[in-house]
Write a structure and sequence with these properties.
single chain; alpha+beta; Glutaredoxin; 2 domains; 10 helices; about 60% helix; globular; Glutathione-S-Trfase_C_sf; glutathione transferase activity; EC 2.5.1.18; Glutathione_S-Trfase; Glutathione-S-Trfase_C-like
Length: about 220
């Protein structure tokens, strides 16, 4: 019997990426909730370089960084594939995963944490990224890879719950059905996938978490 453990943190979308992938693959695992900032000795042992979650431990061997973990899961448990079989389509999927990691995430967090002129700039950049995702990444498909959920969808899976909370805290709604109808429809489709629907953080709890983060960030800028 394979031993699989996941070290995560409840508000982290990176932890949920791994949870969703394991659930979609039907892989049984034990979840260990980390208490930040009091990182466990096991976490520091398993991820001594970055000292961050998530960390997947399979047969006693740790794998760190969510995108690397997703690739590991896909290769280790090939059943219910989350990447296309075609080499070109796999390459395109990895392109959008990389785009989301390098461009999407930092841009959205800038929107969430900035104020004043910096926030106006961040709003413009966020709208540009959303436009690229809708027109170039998603197109007219139900999910990025077609009719079924895949690794690209999982990578952008923080938009439906996490980004919604960010918008609510900031008081600016960017991703609306009137502005990005296809991307908004994708969000609704994504949330209705049973594995996703059953494994999302509580909205009010996450909202309170983000409010604390933004209040702290804004207070620091005022010093």
């Amino acid at each position: 019997m394979e031993e699989v453990k996941l070290h995560g943190f409840w508000p982290s979308p990176f932890s949920y990426r791994v949870i969703w992938a394991l659930k979609l693959k039907g892989v049984k695992y034990d979840y260990i909730e980390e208490d930040f900032p009091n990182k466990s000795k096991l976490l520091l042992q398993y991820n001594p370089v970055h000292k961050k979650i998530p960390v997947l431990v399979h047969r006693g061997k740790p794998v760190a960084e969510s995108l690397i973990i997703l690739e590991y899961i896909e290769e280790t448990w090939p059943e219910n594939p989350l990447l296309p079989k075609d080499a070109y389509e796999r390459a395109m999927a990895r392109f959008w995963i990389k785009y989301g990691d390098e461009k999407g995430g930092p841009t959205f967090y800038s929107f969430f944490l900035s104020v004043g002129e910096e926030q106006e700039k961040a709003i413009k950049e966020t709208m540009e990224v959303l436009k690229v995702l809708e027109e170039k990444g998603l197109g007219d498909k139900k999910f990025v890879g077609g009719d079924t959920i895949g690794l690209v969808d999982i990578t952008f899976g923080w938009l439906p719950r996490w980004f919604e909370c960010m918008e609510e805290v900031v008081g600016v709604k960017l991703l609306q059905p009137t502005t990005f109808p296809r991307l908004h429809a994708w969000m609704e489709n994504f949330k209705e996938v049973p594995v996703i629907k059953e494994n999302l953080p509580d909205h009010e709890k996450l909202l309170a978490h983000f409010k604390r983060i933004r209040e702290s960030s804004v207070a620091d800028t005022m010093k």
